[in-house]
Specification:
The protein is mostly helical. It has one domain. Helices cover about 55% and strands about 5% of the residues. It has a two-stranded antiparallel sheet with strand order 1-2. Helix 5 packs across helix 10. The chain is globular, with a radius of gyration of 20 Å. The C terminus is likely disordered.
Length: about 300
């Protein structure tokens, strides 16, 4: 397993970046501590069950994983599959920050890098470097968080936006304020035990599960599943990852048509995240939606 290092000429912005394979970076104890803390909080949540806590979990999941990571970070900011008014775009990006998967600039740059070098040298999280590496090893030992040259080159549109530069530094603020609000509201409704339960379910358990659900797209959908398109990578369509992610598991479809707002390309390939985009369009908040479908084969043609 290896990490990436960028070599580029500082006075030649138009020159391509050369990505060099190196030995894994030192173990990132900060990320490890954060991940372990949220997993311990997730376990603790199971001992503080309340029906209202499940409702909080589901509401926060829809905001962070579906609206935030899938619709905002992935389909709008990374691939520009649709457009919204700026205030809507910023609100969706804040929802993405609630997933605690990094700032929009970092997330978008890593994903664009993945698409350019999918399952080749330069892919930050390919299973060809190891199944565990593709799932979470790259987070623990990857060097991309420190590769500001790579991040700036792969997300220049976000780097030029003052809001995203601010969120790159303060992306932890939305989840912190949310935790405080859940604690206060839960306590006001049912006392300290309910307030703590809402925080454990709406923040710790939801984020811990969200980590793995997102990472499954990096690992499982490049290992097991069906392939509709003969792409030059190992991407597959995996139905159960699609179910968990709201549509991100139709990954072979996505790699074949990365700018398409819909990843499901058959009637049975449910894509709840695309339905969310269509809902925004229905109320006039989304337009320029790019939709690509596989062309039906003509008789007599292979």
């Amino acid at each position: 397993m290896s990490t990436l290092s960028a070599i580029s000429s500082p006075d030649a912005a138009s020159e391509p970046i050369e990505l060099v394979r190196q030995e894994p970076a030192e173990f990132n104890w900060v990320f490890f501590t954060v991940i372990v803390t949220f997993h311990l909080g997730a376990i603790a949540a199971l001992f503080t069950f309340h029906w209202s806590s499940i409702a909080v979990f589901l509401a926060m999941w829809l905001l962070s994983q579906n609206a935030g990571i899938a619709i905002s970070y992935h389909r709008q900011l990374t691939h520009r599959s649709f457009t919204t008014p700026k205030w809507v775009e910023y609100c969706l990006a804040i929802c993405g920050a609630l997933a605690l998967q990094g700032s929009p600039i970092y997330w978008v740059a890593v994903h664009r890098l993945h698409h350019q070098y999918t399952d080749k040298s330069g892919d930050p999280h390919s299973p060809r470097d190891g199944k565990w590496w593709s799932h979470m090893g790259w987070i623990m030992r990857g060097a991309l968080h420190n590769e500001t040259t790579v991040l700036a080159r792969y997300a220049p549109d976000l780097q030029r936006d003052g809001f995203y530069r601010w969120l790159s530094v303060w992306h932890w603020v939305p989840i912190t304020l949310t935790a405080i609000a859940l604690l206060a509201l839960g306590t006001a409704v049912g006392g300290w035990p309910l307030g703590i339960s809402w925080v454990l379910w709406g923040v710790f358990l939801r984020i811990a599960i969200g980590f793995h659900v997102t990472w499954l797209v990096n690992s499982v959908t490049h290992l097991w599943g069906a392939r509709r398109f003969n792409t030059h990578d190992d991407s597959t369509n995996n139905w159960w990852v699609a179910f968990l992610t709201g549509g991100e598991g139709w990954h072979n479809n996505h790699h074949a048509h990365p700018t398409s707002a819909t990843h499901g390309m058959a009637w049975w390939e449910l894509d709840f995240n695309y339905w969310g985009i269509r809902l925004l369009a229905l109320v006039g908040l989304a337009k320029n939606i790019k939709v690509m479908r596989p062309r039906p084969s003509r008789p007599g043609l292979q």
